[in-house]
Amino acid sequence: MSIFRRKEFIRVAPEEVGVPSEAVDWLLDRLEEGWTEPHGLMLMRKGKIFAEGWWSPYAPGIRHGLQSHTKTYAATAVGIAYTEGLLSLDERIIDIFPDKAPKEPSENLKKLKVRHVLSMGCGMDEMPRPGLDWIRDFLATPVNHEPGTTYMYNSTGSTLLGAIVREKTGLGLHDYLKPRLFDKIGIDAANLRWMRMPDGMEVGGGGLLATTEDNLRLMKLYADGGVWEGERILAEDYVKLATTLQNESATEEAVNPPAKDNFVGYGYQIWMCRPKGVYRADGAMGQFTIVVPDKDMIIAITENASGAHWAQKTLDIMWDFLERIPEGEALPENAEAAAKLKRRLSSLALPNEAYAPFSQRRSMIDGASFNVVSGKLYLGDMMRIFMSGAKPAGGISQFCFKFNDDSCDITIVRDGVQEVLTAATDGSRRRNVFDSAQLLLSASWPSDDTLRLVIRNIEGCHKKILNFTFKGTGCLINEEGGGMFMGGAAEPVTAALI
Fold first, then answer.
1. In sequence order, which residues have a C-beta less than 8 Å from that of residue 405 and are 6 or more positions away?
2. pLDDT, tens digit (0-9, with 9 covering 90-100), for 332-375
3. Which residue in 496, 492, 456 sits closest to 477, CA to CA?
4. Residue 277, φ and ψ in degrees, nearest 5
5. What is the mean pLDDT of the chain?
6. Integer Cα distance of 368 and 370 in angstroms
7. Range(s) for CATH 3.40.710.10 in the chain?
8. Closest among 287, 397, 411 to 39, alpha carbons compared
9. Which of the following CATH numbers is that of domain 14-346: 3.40.710.10, 2.60.40.1760, 3.40.720.10, 3.30.1330.10?
C-alpha cells in the first residue's frame, strides 16, 4: 500500500503576512458565540497558513460532509476536461447523451449546453427528480425557458457534470480527478468518500466527504489562476469564467431571503460574494472556502450552522474580519499575541453536551426492553451507508437502556440482530462504530420522563437528537435536527414495554 505524501504549506505567525493575531482571536470569539458549531478553520495569506484549528472531537485529517461544496469539485473535473481538449463548453447536452434524450426534444432542450449547466442556467422551473435512470429523467424535465436566460439552483445538474466527464473520458469523477487534480495539489484521494447515484456515478451535487485542507487546496488552485507549482491544471479562461459572474442569482432572494450573499451572482459552481471580487465554494450549513483576491487570502471553514441565516452570519463575520486586516505586507512581530493565539488554536473544543444524568424514571426503565409498534426508528448515518454501497439495515424493532455510572448501554435489534452502543451520560461523547460510520453518543434527562440522545456523525456536519418520552408502559420518540442524511423518523415513533 502506497503512503500518501504531499508538500506541506508553510506555517507562519499572522503578523508575518500582515494580519493581527488579535483579529484572529476576534474571529474565534464570534464563531464561539453559540449560534453555530464550528468544526474546522484554516486561514491562508500569500500562500502561507497563518492560523488553523479544529474543535475537538473534529480534527485535521477527519473527513467532513461538504454538502454543495462538492459542486466545485465536479465543475473542476469539467474544467480539466475542457483544458485537455476533451469537451467544449458549448456542446449540447443532447449531443453528449443522445441515447438518453427524448425522441422529440423541445427547442429549449436542444439549446441546453455544458456552460448552462455549470452556471445554473438550465432553464428549468424545478429540479429534476432523479430515479434509477436519472440522466434520462433529467433530460425529460421541461426546460421552460431558453437556457442561459434564467437562474435556478439545480443540484441534479451539478451531478450531471460528472456524467458529462464520464461520457467523454470513460472515468467517473474520482478516477478522473485522482491523477489530474488530487495527486497534483496534495489531496489524499484514498481519504475521500463519495455518495453515488444508482448507476455508480458520484453525486457531484453534494455527496463528497473531504477535509478542510482539501477544500483550501482546491480553491487555492482557482486563486492562482489554475496553476499549481508551475504546472497548469485548469485553463486560464476557464478559471476566469468560473470565478466571475456568469448568471444573475437575484431570484434566490425569494426562496432563501436570509442568504444575502446568494443574491450577488453565480459563476461555474462557484458563488460571487458581496465584497467586490470575492468568491466562494459553498455547502449547506456553512461549508465555505472563500477566496479574497485583493488581500491574497483564502478562508476555509467547516461547521454546523443550522440554517441559512446562521450560515449567512458566518459570511457576515468573515467580511467584518477582513475589515480588521490593515493594508501592508507585514506587521511588526507580536510574539506574545501570536503565542497566545497558537495555544488557543491548539486547544479548541466543542462544549460538552448539556446533561442531567439522573431522573426517577431512570430506575424504572433501566434494563427494560421496548418494542417499536409504529413508525420507523433509525440511529445511523444513511449517507455513509449509501456511500459504502451497503444495503441499509431495517429500522430498529426493539431497544433497551442499561445505565452505568457515567454511561448508558443501548441495546437495539435490527432485522433480528442484536447490537450494543454506548452513550456518555456525563456530558462527554462516546465513540461507536455503527453501519461503518463513527457516531458519538451522549444521553441526558432534560426532564424527569424524557431521555435525550444526541447522535453526532464525526464525518458529517449534522447532529440529531432523539427524545424518548416515557409514559406508563409506553414511549414516544421524537427527532430533532439531523438533516436528511442522518436517517431517522419523519413522524414520531411509538414503542411499548415488553
1. none
2. 999 999 999 999 999 999 999 888 877 889 999 999 999 999 99
3. 492
4. 85, -10
5. 94
6. 7
7. 14-346
8. 287
9. 3.40.710.10
